Structures are given as C-alpha cells and as structure tokens.
Amino acid sequence: MELKEKKALITGAGKGIGRSIALALAKEGVHVGLVARSAADLEQLAGSISNDYPVKAVYATADVAIRSEVEKAYSSIKNHQSAIGWCPTTDRYQPVQEVENDRLLYRRYFLLRFYS
C-alpha cells in the first residue's frame, strides 16, 4: 500500500503504541492527526514529527470515552487536514468514510484505540 501523502487519524497518539504508529506513518510520508488526553505529549510529538519528516502533524486533545470530545477533536483535525483518509487501529486500517457513516463503528474504533 502506498502511504505517501495519505492522511491518518491516530488516537492514543501521546504514548505507547499510538505514538509508535504516528511516528512510523510520518516516516512513510503520511500526514497525521493526533488525538490523546495530554496536550503536552501531543505538542511534543507533533513538533518532533514536523521537524523530522516532510509531513503535516496536527493534534487535538480528547478523552475518547466522551463522545462530545471525540467529535470536537475530529472536527478540529479534519479542519486542518481537509480530509482524513483512514484511521489505523491495532487490528486493521479502516477507511474513515466507512466509519463516519456508522456512528457505532466510529465510536468502536476510538474506544478500541483507547483501551488497547
């Protein structure tokens, strides 16, 4: 799969596997939208990605267990990224348009990343 110039939304991006996924995707040329609860972690990660790779990294804080925060973060990132192509999770890649059209599936993917 060609990843360069794609756009991805990564939840749990502040630490652990979410952070590793964000860095790996940025290294492959993917523009990343980062979501986590800690603004400090996200700011540091976005700065590192922007300095080290020729991609755009934007972030928004959210507790993904709270629907209103998820929707606000998604809207904020989508406004900066224009269109998000997919949402990587630990089990597979899910095209965002499929997720956006099914609110339960959309929430499942955020919660899956939150608890993984």
Automatic annotation (TrEMBL):
Record key words, sorted: Oxidoreductase
The keyword Manganese is annotated on this UniProt entry: no
Entry keyword annotation includes Oxidoreductase: yes
Single annotated GO MF: oxidoreductase activity
Pfam families, per the entry: adh_short
Protein family: Belongs to the short-chain dehydrogenases/reductases (SDR) family.
Name of the protein described by the UniProt record: SDR family NAD(P)-dependent oxidoreductase
Organism the protein comes from: Brevibacillus invocatus
Lineage of the species this protein comes from: Bacteria, Bacillati, Bacillota, Bacilli, Bacillales
